[in-house]
Amino acid sequence: MSEVTARRKPTIRDVAVQAGVSRSTVSRVINGGHWVSPDARVAVEEAIVATGYTANHHARSLATGRAGSMAFLLTEPQQLLFDDPTFALLLRGAAEALAQRAMTLVLLVAGTPAERESVAHFISAGHVDGVLLISSHESEPLLDQLLDSGVPIVSCGVPLGHERELSTISVEEVASAKTMVAYLQQKGYERIGMIAGPDDTPGGRYRLVGFREQLGDDFDDAFVEMGDYSFESGQTAMTRLLERGVDAVFAANDRMAAGAIAAVRRAGLRVPDDVAVAGFDDSGLAATHEPTITTMRQPWEQISAQMVSVLLDAIAGAEPRSVILDTELVVRESA
């Protein structure tokens, strides 16, 4: 046994390092060995012996029977479950997809250190067969804990820093942003700004990449403000962008777009006559807002269904895979 594993209980990460394979490969061996080459299986089994790794309750429960449930894991503050309509859409879609398979969805929220510890213990104890990870931040410590536990995971969006370690269902973030900016350019707008999401989230990072790529030589850092996906951050960011003379703004989600529209009105300007505003998601808010918001529509039902389907494959031992879905430009009154 190595010095590292002698000081603490060995994890799947230790086994993976010893065997020279990924954590997902170790997990597949422990969960039945499907889709694993004979050489990799032998390497993992030898590494388990060398490190002294002992399978946790979750792995043992998979060998004897399923829990019959999946976790819908939101690693955000609790209020966002109710404030952000995208989470409700995904929750409903996942619940419906599982109900068709006579399985139960367990809602877990881990927005604080105490909640993370409780959730990690609950999941590692084998109370669910897999995890639908609904939000991910690059610095999120819980994801490493779950990967080390060996529980199958499917992420909504590409989890930054863990791109190849688990299955993902995402949309064409970069291409979608480029489509929206190209539309604004075609409408004749020349001073286009962006309210970007947090850089440690896939939507925040890659939508800004698309914005930058589409503008090319016309890109100006001064026309980019960062938000946190909230209405308030959109309002604050738009106030700053108006001072710089933007004639159109692309917000990384519809809530920030709504905040941007409020800031335009507060400045005594009109949308879209003086400033156009566009968003991203089309989760319901965009269609009911006054004015209605031009946005990029994510296929929410398809995302939920694919997450459940791919997670069931992962539970059965399939290798991690990525599914990338298309978005759709929806033109409404704001732009």
SSE map:
Elements: H1 3-7, H2 12-19, H3 23-30, H4 38-51, H5 57-64, E1 69-74, H6 80-83, H7 85-99, E2 104-109, H8 113-124, E3 130-133, H9 141-149, E4 153-156, E5 167-171, H10 173-186, E6 192-196, H11 202-215, E7 224-226, H12 231-243, E8 248-251, H13 254-266, E9 276-278, H14 285-288, E10 295-297, H15 300-315, E11 322-325, E12 328-330
Parallel strand pairs: 1-2, 1-3, 3-4, 4-5, 5-11, 6-7, 6-8, 8-9
Antiparallel strand pairs: 10-12
User: Judging by the overall fold, what is the CATH architecture of the largest domain?
Assistant: 3-Layer(aba) Sandwich
Question: Percent of residues in helical segments?
Answer: 40-55%
Low-confidence stretches: 1-6, 57-64
Kindly give the count of domains: 3
Overall description:
By secondary structure, the protein is of the alpha/beta class. It has 3 domains: 3-55, Orthogonal Bundle (434 Repressor (Amino-terminal Domain)), CATH 1.10.260.40; 66-170 and 301-325, Response regulator (Rossmann fold, 3-Layer(aba) Sandwich), CATH 3.40.50.2300; 173-297, 3-Layer(aba) Sandwich (Rossmann fold). It has 15 helices and 12 strands. The chain has helices at 3-7, 12-19, 23-30, 38-51, 57-64, 80-83, 85-99, 113-124, 141-149, 173-186, 202-215, 231-243, 254-266, 285-288, 300-315; strands spanning 69-74, 104-109, 130-133, 153-156, 167-171, 192-196, 224-226, 248-251, 276-278, 295-297, 322-325, 328-330. Strands 2-1-3-4-5-11 form a 6-stranded parallel sheet, sandwiched between helices. Strands 7-6-8-9 form a 4-stranded parallel sheet, with helices on both faces. The protein is elongated.
